[in-house]
Design a protein that fits this description.
0% strand
């Protein structure tokens, strides 16, 4: 049968454009890319509202504890609300795009995330030093302190530690000059008052972050107008790159630091396993945080919310890459299910049962992130972020 002229031309065009599953799908106007970027930005903005609501409830609980610092039930209530707040925040960890991102890593980055949660930059000794110094009584002045004595991570230490010893070395000035001994009797009151200052600052910092997203010069509009007037993004593709860069949190921080470290498959662990490398040192909620990170990643991939979500998976389907979208969906769900199966157990409890629990979780996340680093960025013509380059996982 003689091939028609039109079909021959189409075939030739396809060959010249390398029309296979590993090439960038067509989107001549960038309309689908812009729609996906805008929808995913809306997901982040909605999650910021959720975090704000959680921090407001946390403030109420901590203030009640500060008013009666020896009341164990009030402290427990504050601990419970801290955990609820952290789970809301952990959904946002793979969404560090724009103002939340580091200035040197993300377009529009303002380092605002670290003021709210600075892990892995944490220092319990510095928190104890602040307890002794008492500068936390002036919230306005204390706002200028280093991030390792601020935020949800410092608050974890204050809420969950009730020891009369401190986290500093025996030869530190805190232990040599008598300043710690002088406050031991006041520790419950001081910890609660310090915690109340931190929640005050958390409310302010979240308000700052939300404001950076809103208005005529906010980051949300910058994404939604990418390529059509945005000062930050000359194209929808640039906006997609910024969002996809944030997703690699689940590769480096979630997989390599939160899971591989404690499991004993990290260069930082010399005598496997290493539960001391877990994220949540005092509340021991590390596995639940990993689960929340994966759910946050899923929200971005799906573009959660609304009757017709518009995330990365939708974009792939729009650009004739349904098979890859399905594989990403399946592998991410497998990682979520693996984390959920570990439940509310601590890292130590999982390791005590079997070393395979964390290993299986690591492997499930690795399968998903391997797709992110290869087919996903290739097919959507995205740039691989610097922190993901050279990774042999």
């Amino acid at each position: 049968m003689t091939r028609s002229l039109s079909s021959t031309v189409c075939l030739l065009a396809c060959v010249l454009m390398s029309c296979d599953s590993g090439t960038t799908p067509p989107d001549p106007t960038g309309a689908a890319r812009l729609e996906a970027a805008g929808a995913m930005a809306q997901v982040v903005r909605a999650r910021l509202d959720d975090a704000t609501t959680a921090v407001s409830a946390l403030t109420t609980a901590v203030d009640a504890w500060a008013a009666a610092p020896t009341d164990a039930s009030l402290r427990t209530a504050a601990q419970d609300q801290w955990l609820a707040t952290m789970l809301a925040w952990q959904h946002l960890e793979p969404m560090q795009v724009g103002p939340a991102a580091a200035m040197d890593l993300g377009v529009g980055g303002q380092d605002l995330r670290d003021r709210i949660y600075s892990w892995p930059i944490v220092n319990a000794c510095r928190v104890d030093q602040e307890l002794a110094e008492g500068a936390y009584t002036d919230a306005d002045a204390f706002a200028a302190e280093a991030i390792n004595v601020l935020g949800l991570d410092a608050l974890e230490y204050l809420l969950f530690v009730d020891s009369t010893t401190n986290a500093c070395a025996p030869n530190s000035s805190l232990n040599l000059d008598g300043s710690w001994d002088a406050i031991v009797a006041e520790l419950p009151t001081r910890r609660a008052a310090y915690a109340a200052t931190l929640t005050t600052l958390l409310n302010r910092d979240l308000a700052t972050l939300r404001a950076a997203w809103d208005g005529t010069d906010g980051f949300l509009l910058e994404v939604q107008s990418a390529g059509t007037g945005s000062a930050l993004f000359s194209s929808a593709q640039d906006a997609l790159n910024a969002i996809s860069d944030a997703l690699f949190y689940v590769d480096k921080e979630t997989k390599d630091m939160k899971v591989a470290g404690p499991a004993g498959i990290s260069p930082d662990c010399l005598t496997a396993p290493c539960p001391e490398l877990r994220e949540s040192q005092y509340a021991n909620a590390s596995i639940r945080f990993v689960h929340a990170n994966l759910l946050g990643t899923q929200e971005m991939m799906l573009g959660a919310g609304g009757a017709e979500p518009r995330g990365f998976l939708w974009l792939l389907e729009e650009l004739d890459q349904a098979a890859l979208a399905a594989e990403l969906r399946t592998t991410l769900q497998a990682a979520i299910d693996q984390a959920a199966a570990l439940g509310e157990r601590t890292v130590e409890e999982v390791l005590a049962e079997s070393a395979t629990g964390l290993m299986a979780l690591y492997e499930a996340i690795r399968v998903f992130t391997e797709l992110l680093k290869t087919q996903f960025v290739t097919v959507l013509d995205l740039d691989l972020p610097n922190r993901a380059e050279g990774d042999d996982d």
